[in-house]
Write a structure and sequence with these properties.
- InterPro entries: Dimeric_a/b-barrel, Tscrpt_reg_AsnC/Lrp_C.
- By secondary structure, the protein is α+β, with helices and mostly antiparallel strands.
- The chain has one domain: 2-Layer Sandwich (Alpha-Beta Plaits).
- The two termini are 24 Å apart.
């Protein structure tokens, strides 16, 4: 599984609509509205790099109101939640 973090600059008048449309795309697992220099952060989870290109360039980039995206591919996930689950089931 390949995970990518996509930073999205959106038309300010369409942020809720853009977020909803992006969230409905196959390959997008979550979308967050955030403060700061960008408007939305989307998490893409796909099987292959080619699938990521399809999700970000072919679909997400064509959503009306998306002005610009920056995509970061995750190499390794570190999560307190994952560690707590591992200890809960008795793994060392």
């Amino acid at each position: 599984m390949l995970t990518a973090i996509v930073l999205i600059d959106a038309d300010a008048s369409r942020i809720p609509e853009v977020a909803q449309e992006v969230a409905e795309l196959d390959g997008i697992s979550e979308v967050y509205s955030v403060t700061g220099d960008i408007d939305l952060i989307a998490l893409a989870r796909v099987r292959e790099h080619e699938d990521l290109a399809s999700v970000v360039a072919d679909k997400l980039g064509k959503v009306e109101g998306v002005l610009r995206t920056q995509t970061y591919i995750a190499f390794q996930a570190y999560s307190r939640h994952d560690l707590e689950q591992a200890f809960h089931i008795g793994l060392d």
